[in-house]
Backbone:
């Protein structure tokens, strides 16, 4: 059970602590006082989504903390578990269980075994046929759960084999398509006969061809200047120095350097002449070069940024082709395993179907009795089960379960979403919750405005059902109906007041006299002698 709930900076809640009790805890108060915010806070600490717009104006974080007394829970310390969640305006979450930090998903998984919140969202879930099998399986859990757990383990194996076969091209057509593609890619790279560094040399050759005219002109100028001017000038300078080389050692030294330079430049001149002779523009060569570069570029675009990467990819292709061609034996083994697994799954699915059909009849009977108690005397629930013979396996087996309802005598039973009103949906869900309460291990049940769309005898019956559920679970219920409020073991009044120009939510645990006055207010909108007398009668009926 929740022993203490602490809420800070959520909506108009500034800093609120509530000590809750076993049995039926009733929350009442005027519209907008903050009752729903309290339920929302329990949703937040249960790992549900949180909108930062819920953070109290002027604050940059919200905080919810709850202390649960669960002596049988393995996580409890001295019987207590403290859970908290802080959410900042930057969407940063800080979740803790007994001081240990956890993720939001871990918090949600932990809390789903502790708190079950029923509101209008659950009515929407009830309209979704996909959830109906969960109600039936929970009702027959004693026999269904062991078989279902065994089935789920096989289903996991089945999914693994299916995935492995898909990855291993277990389908012959898919395998051949993939093999053809890989071979095509391999042959395309193989045919290109790539060489590492080839692209760089081709780019350099292309650059020369594209600039051949400019290169040729420059080499001609250089060759002419060296052969006709530089060499003659150097030759004349050498002859001049030879006439005085014996007069001083420095003249001789300069002459030797000049001769060395002459021979170097002569060598350079021959190199330039050779380069000039080798420069020519060949259109056919250019076309071949461009075609080769286009081929390499196309391969790079498909298989890698460099020739080295392309060749590595080619090696991978070769390995994958060999692997696929040798997979047949392994895939045949997987298919044999799949046949064994599906055979066991089929057997368990049939047993599950038999159990579900048996428990469906019992569940129908119990829910229909609950509906009569809830003033839906002509309503008849029918749990339809369809067995999927096409072997489309899922985590629940081969059954599709949907709850149908006949609301009036003489009419056909139809799916819930086609018939039931809001008030009827609330009572159907309460009937299901009450039937499941004996097998449901979740200790805390929360009902947010379960009285939507009902009044009179139906409201009285809803109150009695909530009282019945609270014998096995701690129940928190937000209500606007006096006949439900009168059933409370503990009644809390939620109200708001203005302090320092700010609206804040407060809560009071009411004593017996205050509870009667609150029931009178809810029943009549005002507290009069008549409404007080009526409240006492409702309360005395509850005490009896």
Residues:
């Amino acid at each position: 059970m929740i022993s203490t709930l602490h809420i800070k900076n959520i909506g108009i809640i500034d800093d609120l602590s509530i000590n809750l009790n076993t049995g039926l805890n009733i929350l009442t108060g005027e519209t907008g006082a903050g009752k729903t915010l309290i339920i929302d806070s329990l949703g937040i600490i249960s790992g549900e989504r949180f909108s930062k717009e819920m953070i109290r104006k002027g604050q940059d974080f919200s905080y919810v903390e709850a202390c649960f007394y669960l002596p049988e829970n393995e996580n409890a310390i001295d019987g207590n578990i403290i859970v908290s969640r802080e959410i900042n305006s930057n969407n940063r979450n800080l979740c803790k269980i007994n001081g240990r930090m956890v993720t939001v998903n871990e918090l949600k998984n932990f809390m789903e075994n502790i708190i079950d919140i029923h509101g209008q969202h659950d009515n929407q879930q009830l309209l979704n046929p996909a959830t109906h099998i969960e109600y039936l399986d929970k009702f027959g859990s004693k026999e269904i759960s062991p078989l279902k757990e065994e089935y789920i383990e096989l289903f996991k194996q089945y999914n693994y084999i299916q995935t492995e076969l898909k990855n291993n091209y277990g389908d012959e057509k898919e395998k051949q398509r993939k093999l053809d593609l890989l071979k095509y890619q391999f042959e395309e790279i193989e045919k290109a006969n790539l060489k590492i560094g080839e692209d760089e040399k081709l780019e350099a050759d292309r650059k020369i061809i594209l600039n051949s005219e400019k290169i040729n002109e420059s080499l001609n100028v250089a060759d002419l200047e060296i052969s006709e001017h530089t060499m003659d000038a150097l030759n004349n300078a050498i002859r001049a120095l030879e006439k005085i080389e014996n007069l001083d050692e420095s003249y001789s030294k300069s002459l030797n350097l000049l001769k060395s330079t002459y021979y170097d430049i002569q060598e350079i001149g021959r190199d330039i002449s050779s380069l000039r002779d080798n420069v020519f523009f060949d259109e056919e060569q250019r076309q071949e070069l461009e075609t080769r570069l286009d081929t390499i570029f196309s391969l790079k675009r498909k298989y890698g940024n460099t020739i080295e990467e392309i060749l590595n990819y080619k090696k991978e292709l070769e390995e994958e082709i060999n692997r696929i061609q040798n997979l047949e034996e392994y895939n045949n083994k997987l298919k044999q395993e799949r046949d064994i697994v599906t055979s066991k799954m089929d057997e368990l699915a049939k047993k599950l179907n038999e159990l579900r059909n048996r428990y469906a009849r019992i569940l129908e009977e119990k829910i229909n009795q609950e509906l009569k108690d809830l003033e839906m005397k002509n309503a008849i629930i029918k749990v339809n089960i369809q067995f999927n013979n096409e072997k489309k396996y899922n985590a629940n087996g081969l059954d599709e379960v949907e709850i149908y309802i006949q609301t009036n005598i003489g009419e056909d039973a139809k799916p819930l979403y086609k018939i039931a009103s809001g008030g009827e949906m609330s009572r159907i869900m309460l009937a299901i919750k009450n039937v499941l309460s004996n097998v449901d291990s979740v200790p805390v049940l929360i009902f947010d405005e379960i009285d939507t769309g009902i009044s009179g005898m139906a409201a009285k019956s809803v109150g009695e059902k909530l009282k019945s559920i609270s014998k096995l679970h701690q129940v928190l219920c937000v209500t606007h109906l006096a006949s439900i409020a009168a059933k409370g073991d503990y009644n809390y009044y939620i109200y708001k007041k203005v302090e320092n120009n700010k609206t804040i939510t407060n809560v009071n645990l009411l004593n017996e006299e205050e509870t009667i006055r609150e029931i009178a207010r809810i029943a009549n909108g005002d507290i009069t002698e008549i409404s007080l007398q009526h409240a006492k009668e409702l309360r005395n009926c509850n005490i009896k």
Remarks:
- The chain has a mean pLDDT of 86.
- The radius of gyration is 43 Å.
- The first helix runs from residue 35 to 45.
- The first strand starts at residue 2 and ends at 10.
